[in-house]
Every structure is written in structure tokens, then in C-alpha cells.
């Protein structure tokens, strides 16, 4: 879905005319051409329109993502879905095939680390992950200075908790809860934080972690 198509989709969903949608932010003739894909829209005008109608930016970007992301990113998403299905069906051969395909992808370090750890967990081989892999994952995570607001860094953390020490894990969880306990985050971010908390509780139970940072008081 293009930006114009997504704007039209949101406008119809809200039951608005084109005039009501643009609220004088841009000319109607220009907006009409945007919806039809004839002209583009500036980032400033786009955000003004989205904010004027309280349209969640992350949800909007999700609508248009496939139109603008690279073929490499599309392939990564396809493989992630295949891995998820293989996990659900316990298809070991398909999991191995997916792993080999993932390793062939250029770039996508975060994605590769997430899949490597997930497959190691599925195989019961987490303890066999090399020290080098664990160190690389932590380095990649800490490379994000603003990781608390970085969806990719949070996904990496949520999927690779096994490589963190108990102290590192508890410290990160405490920071996340402090950041988002009273924060109006997007639906996508709230979903990501919920997944992280769910994973954290699972690992606390499975590995017998004891929280030394007293996160219940955050």
C-alpha cells in the first residue's frame, strides 16, 4: 500500500471527506493527487494530517512498509514467518533449512541473532552458543544509545534474553518499566513491551532468576 492509498484507507475508515481530512494543511487538489499516486507528500504535511486525526504513526507505517522496504527486508520477514510456522509444527528439517537461508542474508545482524538464539532454544542448545556469538549480540544491543525507544533493539533484547547475565537482564527490565510505566507509547511499542515482559517472566520461572533490582517498586 502506497502512502496515498494508506491515507485514503484511513480517511474512509474515519468517514471523512478529503476537505475534512486535510483540514487546510495542504490544497485539496494536491491531496487528491496524493491519494491517486500522482504526487508525493512532504513528511511534515503527512505527520500534520496523521496527528490531526490521532492516527497512530506506527500503525500507518505498518500499512505502507511493504511498499518501501528493500527486497532483503521482505525476504527476512518471509523467513521469520516460516520459522514461526516451523516452530509451531515442530518441523526440524524446515527449521534447519530456514536457518541456512537466514545465514545467507546480507546484513540484518539483529534479525540473524534473533533467529540463531530462537533456534538454539528450540533445540535445547542455548548453552552451546559460542562466547563470541553472545558477546556480539550484547555489543549489537548496547550499540543503540537510545535502545529504550528503538523497536529493533527491543526486539533483539526480547528474543535474546538468554545471552544476558541475570544482573544485565534485571537492569534492562527495570529501565524499560521506568520508561514506559507512565508513558503514552504507540500500540506497536506497547505490544513489544508486553512481549518482553512475558518473555522475562518465562525466563525468571524457567531459569529460576531472582530479581535483585526490586522492579516491583518501579
UniProtKB/TrEMBL annotation:
Gene Ontology MF terms: DNA binding
Domain HTH cro/C1-type per the UniProt entry, residue ranges: 7-60
InterPro entries: Cro/C1-type_HTH, HTH-type_regulator_Rgg, Lambda_DNA-bd_dom_sf, TPR-like_helical_dom_sf
Classification via PANTHER family: TRANSCRIPTIONAL REGULATOR-RELATED
Protein name, entry field: Transcriptional regulator
Source organism (scientific name): Lactobacillus gallinarum DSM 10532 = JCM 2011
Amino acid at each position: 500500500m502506497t502512502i496515498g492509498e494508506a491515507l485514503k484507507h484511513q480517511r474512509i475508515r474515519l468517514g471523512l471527506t478529503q476537505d475534512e481530512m486535510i483540514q487546510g494543511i495542504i490544497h485539496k487538489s494536491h491531496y487528491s493527487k496524493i491519494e491517486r499516486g500522482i504526487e508525493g507528500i512532504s513528511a511534515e504535511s503527512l505527520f500534520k494530517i496523521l496527528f490531526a486525526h490521532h492516527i497512530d504513526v506506527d500503525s500507518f507505517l505498518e500499512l505502507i512498509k511493504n511498499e518501501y522496504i528493500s527486497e532483503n527486508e521482505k525476504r527476512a520477514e518471509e523467513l521469520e514467518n516460516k520459522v514461526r510456522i516451523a516452530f509451531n509444527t515442530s518441523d526440524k528439517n524446515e527449521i534447519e533449512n530456514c536457518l541456512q537461508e537466514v545465514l545467507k542474508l546480507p546484513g540484518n545482524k539483529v534479525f540473524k541473532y534473533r533467529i540463531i538464539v530462537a533456534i538454539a532454544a528450540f533445540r535445547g542448545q542455548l548453552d552451546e552458543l559460542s562466547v563470541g556469538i553472545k558477546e556480539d549480540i550484547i555489543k549489537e544491543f548496547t550499540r543503540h544509545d537510545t535502545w529504550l525507544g528503538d523497536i529493533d533493539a527491543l526486539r533483539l533484547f526480547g528474543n535474546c534474553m538468554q545471552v544476558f547475565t541475570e544482573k544485565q537482564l534485571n537492569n534492562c527490565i527495570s529501565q524499560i518499566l521506568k520508561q514506559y510505566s507512565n508513558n503514552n507509547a504507540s500500540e506497536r511499542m506497547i505490544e513489544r513491551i508486553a512481549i518482553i515482559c512475558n518473555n522475562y517472566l518465562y525466563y525468571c520461572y524457567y531459569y529460576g532468576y531472582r530479581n535483585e533490582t526490586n522492579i516491583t517498586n518501579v
